[in-house]
């Protein structure tokens, strides 16, 4: 219903914007501190308790380009992008309950895992990992997560 629809933008600083588009069941989360969606999807959605991020690839939000380098460098950028989205609604990585990791080369799993472990050392979330044929913009890794507020 139209009466249940709210659209509000809050500017925190010149580089951070959180956009809330609320319906009776979900809020869209958008921040300038993470890469903008490159298609018809949201950076994240929450229902007030559960937070679902879109898959994040290794795009540097300042340049809009994939960070060059190996799986370690791309994994760091992907997790920094997830952190930025969660931080936009005052949540940190401790709130992550589940991640899904998509990689174009599963033989890089051990190297990715060493980086991942730096961010999720204590009480790591549940995780699935899959090898895929390709990812957008030639990325080597994509991670999506479910967190709780």
- Extract low-pLDDT stretches: 1-14
Number of helices: 2
- Name the helix and strand elements from N-terminus to C-terminus, one letter apiece: EEEEEHEHEE
Structural class: alpha+beta
User: In the CATH hierarchy, what is the superfamily?
Assistant: RutC-like
Please outline the major beta sheet: 8 strands, mixed
What would CATH call the architecture? 2-Layer Sandwich
Number of spatially distinct domains: 1
CATH topology: 60s Ribosomal Protein L30, Chain: A
Radius of gyration from the CA trace? 15 Å
Strands of the biggest beta sheet: in what spatial order?
A: 1-2-3-4-5-8-6-7
Report on the architecture of this protein.
This protein has 149 residues and is of the alpha+beta class. It has one domain (2-148): 60s Ribosomal Protein L30, Chain: A (2-Layer Sandwich), CATH 3.30.1330.40. It contains two helices and eight strands. It has helices at 71-87, 109-119; strands at residues 6-11, 17-22, 27-29, 44-46, 50-53, 96-103, 126-131, 141-148. Strands 1-2-3-4-5-8-6-7 form an eight-stranded mixed beta sheet, covered by helices on one side. The longest helix has 17 residues, at 71-87. The two termini are 26 Å apart. Residues 1-14 have low confidence and may be disordered.
């Amino acid at each position: 219903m139209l009466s249940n629809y709210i659209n509000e933008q809050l500017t925190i600083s010149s580089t951070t914007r959180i956009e809330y588009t609320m319906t009776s069941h979900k809020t869209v989360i958008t921040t300038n501190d993470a890469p903008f969606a490159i298609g018809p999807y949201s950076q994240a959605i929450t229902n007030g308790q559960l937070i679902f991020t879109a898959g994040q690839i290794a795009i540097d939000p300042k340049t809009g380009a994939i960070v060059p380098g190996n799986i370690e460098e791309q994994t760091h950028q992907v997790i920094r992008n997830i952190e930025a989205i969660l931080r936009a609604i005052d949540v940190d990585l401790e709130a992550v309950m589940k991640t899904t990791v998509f990689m174009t080369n599963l033989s890089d799993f051990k190297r990715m895992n060493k980086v991942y472990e730096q961010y999720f050392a204590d009480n790591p979330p549940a995780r699935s990992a899959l090898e895929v044929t390709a990812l957008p913009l030639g990325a080597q890794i994509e991670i999506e997560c479910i967190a709780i507020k």
